[in-house]
């Protein structure tokens, strides 16, 4: 089609077609310095006109509610930071803390400063802290594109680094002991503590994948993970890390450690591509000792204590995307099948768990701290399928009989009397002793400092009722392990960025399962 014929498809009222075409041609020639008398190519004219038009940037769609809730949930971790805080931390009422932690330990250079406070108190529990870091890293590995799309990628990497830098301080280079901080008192473990060491290995290994762009730091994390996992596997010292420990056992009692062996080994395989770890994770002794295939409802719920459903899903990922075959296929197939049954057990129609009338699944069978389990289950379900039954998250964000959000700062109605020391004591530049701070513990006034993004891990009871009372911590206390699952579930649900997981980041260190195709033959020459 000639340029004049193409231009005649556009007509101005009361003006002859050929006049319009000729005038446009003259205008274009004059503006762009084209020689007179030469016809203007139609496609070239279209490009020139397009470049001449003013640029109109399309506004991105407003963030959905999951994105808004996610941004707030991440801020909870800023409020839980311990140590010397950077000015960019963004929580004006949270100052430096724990600067003398571990100062009396001769073999720990610089002490044990850093990490995160666990919940509403000033204690640093390494077991749930490590679990929280693993969950945050897992969410980044799967949904990095979504974090980038909403502008939170650097933020969550900072949170992950803050926690893992601290974990690296807690064991020595030969991993002959692990140091912990409980109630501001350092404790050295004489036994291997395979549960806590296995979880620490998982956290460090997962973080090494997140920071794959920083090769030196990534290697440091992977080396630390391998070192502490060797400590966990020491056959002569195996006992639960909390056994007989009055500072830990009443709060974070570990019921076993074979789930951490599966979990830690799976993450170390992804971080290092060392088949020894994959062989361990798929060894028939792992599910036998951990009762992974017994289909016990409690063991199908992901918690800071039970990693079985997450470990089996993590290994199912390998089967789905890479299909490694013999000798791993048989066990991976069983893990895959059990993962499917576990996910189905979360659906109401199968009657495995009770549900409240308001639509909340009771993964803890009516006991306390249910919302963290609901968030974890939502994350697992979103990874196992391309879709997610988001009922649990909707409930947490306000679709419940109380018509309130259980995430502080999200919506207009949310808990105001959070069981949290830093949030409940006024930020008035006055110093209060530990005893002096108790005057606000039982106060009926709302918290003077809003701990944005904190999820009430206790949440409502089995009758959908919630008491916003600071003294009743079973309702109103937030915790790291719960918020990490919330963050992971929310990023999986947000509509920002493309849908689905990133299939490849997890396998950055894993070589191809099959040999590369041979090069094409040389061209035939007669």
From TrEMBL:
The active site is at residues 419, 468, 477. One of its GO terms (biological process) is cellulose catabolic process. GO terms for molecular function: cellulase activity. PROSITE patterns: GH9_2, GH9_3. Its EC number is 3.2.1.4. InterPro entries: 6-hairpin_glycosidase_sf, 6hp_glycosidase-like_sf, Glyco_hydro_9, Glyco_hydro_9_Asp/Glu_AS, Glyco_hydro_9_His_AS. It comes from the Eukaryota. Keywords: Carbohydrate metabolism, Cellulose degradation, Glycosidase, Hydrolase, Polysaccharide degradation. It catalyses: Endohydrolysis of (1->4)-beta-D-glucosidic linkages in cellulose, lichenin and cereal beta-D-glucans. It comes from Escallonia herrerae. Belongs to the glycosyl hydrolase 9 (cellulase E) family. Residues 66-490 form the Glycoside hydrolase family domain. The keyword Hydrolase applies. SUPFAM superfamilies: Six-hairpin glycosidases. This is Endoglucanase.
């Amino acid at each position: 089609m000639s340029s004049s014929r193409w231009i005649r498809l556009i007509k101005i009222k009361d003006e002859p077609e050929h006049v319009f075409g000729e005038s446009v041609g003259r205008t274009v020639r004059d503006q762009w310095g084209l020689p007179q008398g030469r016809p203007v190519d139609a496609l070239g004219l279209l490009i020139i006109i397009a470049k001449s038009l003013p640029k109109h940037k399309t506004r991105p769609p407003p963030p959905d509610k999951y994105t808004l809730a996610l941004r707030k949930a991440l801020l909870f971790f800023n409020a839980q930071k311990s140590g010397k805080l950077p000015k960019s931390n963004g929580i004006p009422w949270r100052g430096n803390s724990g600067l003398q932690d571990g100062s009396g330990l001769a073999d720990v250079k610089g002490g044990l400063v850093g990490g995160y406070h666990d919940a509403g108190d000033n204690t640093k529990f390494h077991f749930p802290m490590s679990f929280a870091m693993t969950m945050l890293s897992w969410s980044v590995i799967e949904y990095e594109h979504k974090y980038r799309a909403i502008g939170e990628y650097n933020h969550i990497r900072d949170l992950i680094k803050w926690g893992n830098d601290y974990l690296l301080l807690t064991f020595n280079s030969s991993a002959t002991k692990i140091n912990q901080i409980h109630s501001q008192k350092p404790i050295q473990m004489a036994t291997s503590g395979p549960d806590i060491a296995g979880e620490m290995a998982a956290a460090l290994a997962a973080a090494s994948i997140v920071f794959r762009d920083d090769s030196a730091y990534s290697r440091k994390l992977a080396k630390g993970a391998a070192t502490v996992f060797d400590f966990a596997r020491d056959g002569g010292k195996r006992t639960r890390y909390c056994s007989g420990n009055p500072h830990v056992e009443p709060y974070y009692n570990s019921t076993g450690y074979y789930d951490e062996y599966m979990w830690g080994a799976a993450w170390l395989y992804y971080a290092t591509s060392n088949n020894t770890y994959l062989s361990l994770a798929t060894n028939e002794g792992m599910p036998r000792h951990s009762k992974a295939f017994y289909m016990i409802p409690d063991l199908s719920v992901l918690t800071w204590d039970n990693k079985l459903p997450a470990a089996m899903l993590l290994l199912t990922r390998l089967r789905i995307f890479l299909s490694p075959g013999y000798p791993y296929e048989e066990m991976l197939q069983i893990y895959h099948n059990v993962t499917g049954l576990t996910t189905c057990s979360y659906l109401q129609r199968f009657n495995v768990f009770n549900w409240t009338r308001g639509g909340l699944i009771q993964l803890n069978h009516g006991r306390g701290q249910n919302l963290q389990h609901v968030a974890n289950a939502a994350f697992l379900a979103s990874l196992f399928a391309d879709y997610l039954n988001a009922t649990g998250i909707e409930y947490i964000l306000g679709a419940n009989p109380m018509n309130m959000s259980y995430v502080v700062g999200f919506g207009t109605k949310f808990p105001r009397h959070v069981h949290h020391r830093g949030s409940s004591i006024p930020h008035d530049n006055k110093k209060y002793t530990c005893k002096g701070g108790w005057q606000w513990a039982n106060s009926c006034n709302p918290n003077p400092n809003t701990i944005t993004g904190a999820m009430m891990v206790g949440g409502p009871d089995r009758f959908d009722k919630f008491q916003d009372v600071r003294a009743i911590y079973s309702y109103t206390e937030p915790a790291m392990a719960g918020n990490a699952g919330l963050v992971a579930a929310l990023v999986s649900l947000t509509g920002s960025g493309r849908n689905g997981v990133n299939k490849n980041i997890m396998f950055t260190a894993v070589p191809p399962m099959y040999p590369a195709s041979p090069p094409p033959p040389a061209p035939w020459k007669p």
